[in-house]
Amino acid sequence: MADDINAKLASDGWCVVPGVISRDMAADAASRLWSIARSNAEEGYSCHLPGLDPNPSMVRVLTPLQSDELFRDLIENDTALELASAVVGQEVIVANCTANIALPGSQSMMLHSDLAFILPEPWLYPWSVNVVWCLSDVHKENGATLYIPGSHEWRLQADIPENAAELLVPFEAPAGSIIVMDGRLWHTSGTNQTADEERALLFAYYSASFLRPMINWTAAIPSELQATFSPRLRQLLSLDVFANTADEEADFQGHWKGQPVGAEQAMGEFRGVAARRSISPA
Ligand SMILES: O=C(O)CCC(=O)C(=O)O
Description:
The longest helix is centred in the N-terminal third of the chain and has 20 residues, at about 25-40. This protein is of the alpha+beta class. The protein has eleven helices and nine strands. Strands 1-7-4-9-3-2 form a six-stranded antiparallel beta sheet. It has a three-stranded antiparallel beta sheet with strand order 6-5-8, with no helix packed on it. The termini are far apart. The chain is globular. The protein folds into two domains: about 5-245, Jelly Rolls (Sandwich); about 250-280, no CATH class. 2-oxoglutaric acid binds near residues 100, 145, 187 and 201.
């Protein structure tokens, strides 16, 4: 990744990378979100979360990964993963993945940082990162996400100034870009003041692998679907047995039940230790 992008991420806590996917692909992804929202509604799940949004003009799609391969490709996208690792460290996992379509009339949710959702204060290190896929053009008038410059340096809730709401500025980017946002950056959704623009964003939220994700992917994704996933996607979603263990350590540990050597050798070794125990009980 270009040095200037990494330097900007480290100093400002965010960067925009344009053209990661084409405008057509972004538009296709946005229309697939609508299909997912529809199937979730058919199953009885509303895409309005009254605890988060002041009105139903924000359409929240909570299951992109489970519902469509395109979003699984985006979560594994090389550019996204490279930037996520540049913020968080080499081993990242997926903490959550959801999308918000802000329709005209949608309004701001509460100010928050994404790291605060998964880790209590103090927020000392950039242990999470949101890669925000712009599936439409995003600008102030159509409800661009608003952030507070420098807020990734706030360590405690008490550091939030009283005039925080006055400090918000929009992330603006063309469809097909990603906005990479340090998990400590305080932000909120904007207000969509346009007559007819839909602002669609996919939030691919990654964290360091020692933090528990917001979703237990093993429980959320049907096992037949999990069986089709690549090794990298399985690792990103923590689907395999080892968790909270660096890759190399998992290699030393063999199988989670022990070293896989076969019953004959394992029983021979076991009889050896059991016999020693009977001679000299611990
Ligand atoms: O939709 C947005 O612009 C921001 C959404 C957000 O931060 C969230 O849903 O946690």
